[in-house]
Amino acid sequence: MGEIAKTMLPASIPALRRAGPLDGRVAVSGALSLTVLPPASRLSLRAPAGSVADLSAALGLDLPQAPKTSASDGNGRFALWLGPDEWLVIDETSGDLVAACRAVPALHSAVDISHRNVGLLVSGQGAADAVNAGCPQDLSLESFPVGACSRTVLGKIEIVLHRLGEDAFRVECWRSFAGYAQAFLAEAIADASA
Amino acid sequence: MLLIRCPYCEEERPELEFRHAGEAHVARSSEISDISDEAFEQFFFIRSNPKGIVFERWRHLNGCARFFNAARDTVSDRFLTTYKAGEPKPDVAGLLK
User: Fold this and answer.
1) What is the pTM of this model?
2) B17-26+40-96: what fold?
3) Is A153 on the interface with B (CB under 8 A)?
């Protein structure tokens, strides 16, 4: 009994290794490439219009108010407009987004979803064609310019799409769909590169 | 593929992002336990289902995720207009001209 109690002490628990759902998958590289983005902090943020200014100040960026637009603090933190009162906030430096919102007394809901999503990067010439293999939206630069973002579909799954450059898209999908998204995009890239 | 205008996203988006969500402007009684069985049946089960112009709820499920209303022609499958939830029925006669 004494031995068991000892092994249950927090200090004796070995450090947990973070296992990504796409660990071991071969990245697609070439002129058009697919890479798994490193872990990041993510926040599902819901707030009425009256709370936006306070939350923007707390997060250090202006929460976008127009459909299909995003904002960045220039330091790896992005806020993507998903709906009239809904944003996806991503911090690539793994900053504590919940803590940033905790100090805001204005009405809002901030849920940490860092581990729910997986980010994939499709980049290179023809990236829009590769994403369009499963996404029915118009991804021309006129209607989906750099910085545009949207929740949409990729084949059979829901994704959040964020255009980082003319030929670079961040695809955010739920962790359990990551295998499907990776396989789908890898095949789409093979087709778009051919 | 149909393009449906989402009144919240303010643009036309592919139909794959949307889900149909039944007839619009069905008002639930605020005293639902007081209404008669016949009135409840009318509210709960009976739908107009006309051939022609219908007012429907739609949801931009894989987009902004908001419910909105649409006037659609069931014969041609054409969307006459879409409008935000809570707004009154639009004048369809004017849209048909």
Assistant:
1) 0.88
2) Folate-binding fold (3.30.2270)
3) yes
